[in-house]
Amino acid sequence: MTSRTLNNTFRFIFLILLQVMVLNNINLFGNLNPQLYILFILLYPFNSNQSALLILSFLLGLGVDFFENSGGMNAAASLVIAAIRPWVLRFSFGVSYDYQTVKFSNTPVGARMSYVGILILVHHFCLFLLEFFSFAHLLLILEKTIFTGLFTLVLVFLSLALFNRKK
Amino acid sequence: MQQIINFLIRNKNKLLFLVLLAFSLFLTVQSHSFQKSKFINSANFITGGVYSWTSDLENYFHLEEYNKQLLEENRRLRLRLHLESDTLPGDDSLGLVELKLVMEDSLVKLPYHIRSAKVINNNYSGQNNYITIKGGTRDGIAPDMGVVTSDGIVGIVENTSANYATVISLLNANSRINAQLKNSEHYGTLMWNGEMPNIVQLIDVPRLAPVSRGDTIITGGRSLIFPKGIPIGQIVDYRLDQSESYYTIDIQLFNDMTSIGHVYVIEHTEKQEIQELENLSEDD
User: Alpha-carbon distance B16 to B21, whole Å?
Assistant: First the structure.
């Protein structure tokens, strides 16, 4: 239990720093920066307390906002995906999600893909909607959501492949 | 009472979600309002510390580039030294450092004070970009001071802490800066449409103004933030707006906003006096 807490604390801090120090400076094709920090929310233990997840997601987003001078955009977007996570889990992993049994590393690839993909899309859409702050730019928002989303998706699976090896 | 408590316990996650969401949306809305001191900013001890640490590291990779910029500035300064007797103060082709020299040379001392600062974080990928610089209230930097490089303008200081300050970049949808044409006195408002990091827009320039491609745009001096005559960029395109009476002009910046290492912060030393006077006149 304590090792799990320690693990999550480390991941929380590491992902914020990685996001603001490295990933925000990538600027692929001019303006694409992957938002890998939500990996924390994706990997947060499935059977844990939902209230704790909500608070942690909010703090995670707020931490990134502090660095980016972006108000509460990342906090709001992270909060939204933390809130819908239980439904997405049930949708992607079906009955086997119904409590405790699922471990992320031994789920089918398709289910994993849909779980990660849905949460990334929702998060990025909220984030860019709040950044542009108008529906007039909807097309631009969708475009940025999809391209940045793909970038994040690739990085999420790369990091999963990298860190799950030892188990 | 019991039922209310039961209701709260049953829906605690929904309520928690709504409260936190409302708070983060409040912060977001606040961040979209122009010129308001914000609680969430990177000019604090922790974020500033992290950024200055990474920029120390990053600086090594840009040394050559910074050297080139310094050499170029030196070259212009030397040129200016040789030509000093024939150049009139206020010549628009002068860069900022020359401007400072002119100020110190000229008999009428202009009310500006210039400090240098190091950029420790620079964003240009989003809609509302900010720059964090090392240098805060302890170095005499305060909100609403102008920030420039030797090539052109960068932005305006928004928040400060003891050792750091955040600057609203030119590349911020909330940024509004007074600018004018170099060869006439027609002025407009400089803003950014969020598309290209090297193209900004000058709006509300009257149709009568003699606009043509390749003309230079300079700061307008109608605000207390920038001195008049600092070069900004070159006109690449222009068109009439919907009312057909004003131009919207696309300007290519002289400054490369994606690569800024060191900046100068300009303080207008008589700003307070002017503002007090203006407030007095408004009250009457």
Answer: 8
Q: Please determine, for residue A103, whether its predicted confidence score (pLDDT) is greater than 70.
A: no
Task: Identify the DSSP state of B87.
Answer: P
Q: Spell out the domain ranges in chain A.
A: 2-164
- A62-98 per-position pLDDT tens digit: 999 888 888 888 999 999 999 998 888 888 887 666 6
Mutate to test the interface with A, among B54, B57, B127, B259 (most CBs of A within 10 A): B127
How far apart are the CA of A87 and the nearest CA of chain B, in angstroms? 14
Residues of chain B with CATH 2.40.10.340: 45-172+259-275
| Tokens 């090594």, residue located | B60
Most distant CA pair in chain B, distance: 89
Angstroms from A129 CA to nearest CA on chain B: 11
Q: Which of B24, B46, B127 sits opposite A131 (nearest CB)?
A: B127
Chain center to CA of B123: 13
Task: Give the architecture-level CATH label for domain B177-253.
Answer: Beta Barrel (2.40)
Tell me the fold of B45-172+259-275.
Answer: Thrombin, subunit H (2.40.10)
Distance from CA of B31 to the nearest CA of A (A): 5
What is residue B91's predicted lDDT score, i.e. its pLDDT?
47
Residues of B in contact with A32 (CB under 8 A): 125
C-alpha B133/C-alpha B121 separation (Å) is 7
Can you say how many angstroms the Cα of residue A46 is from the centroid of all Cα atoms in its chain? 14
Question: What are the pLDDT digits (tens) for B31-79?
Answer: 777 655 566 677 777 788 888 888 888 777 788 888 888 888 887 777 7
**So what's the ipTM on this one?**
0.81
**Residues B22, A73 contacting (CB under 8 angstroms):** no
Phi, psi of B216 (to 5 degrees): -95, 145
| Closest partner CB to A83 (pick from B17, B24, B51) | B17
Candidates A63, A125, A57, A108; CA nearest to A86 is A57
Q: Which residue of A has its CA nearest to B29?
A: A71
Residues of chain B with Cβ-Cβ distance to A20 below 8 Å are: 47, 50
